[in-house]
Amino acid sequence: MEEIKKGDDYMNMSLSVSPEKYFDSRFDGQEKLFTEKFNGLKTQFDERFNSLENKFDERINSLEIKFDARLSNAETRIDILDTKIDAMDKRLKWSTNLTFGVLGLLVAMVGTLLAMTAIHHF
Predict the structure, then answer these.
(1) Average pLDDT rounded to a whole number, residues 62-86
(2) How many domains does the chain have?
(3) Does the keyword Transmembrane helix belong to this entry (predicted)?
(4) pTM of the full predicted structure?
């Protein structure tokens, strides 16, 4: 009961001073509560946002590492395949040259045989 009386006295005293000051002080109090609540919520939001940002960065870094490893593996396989193709190309060139060499030798031998046969017939 005494608290009510004190509240009434405060209100009466405030109103007796000036209604504008009373309402200004009430508004200032509400504004202060709102600001405190807003700042608290902003802090919570910032903490959650930073947490999500850190998790996102960790996942991106993890995917980047995996991607780099797979890309490196693919590059290694391509290099191995390129080496095999070069080796095969060298063998094919060598065998082609050998084939044409043997074919040239056979043509020369056939030509010589034909020439010798022609000489014996005439």
Answers:
(1) 95
(2) 1
(3) yes
(4) 0.45
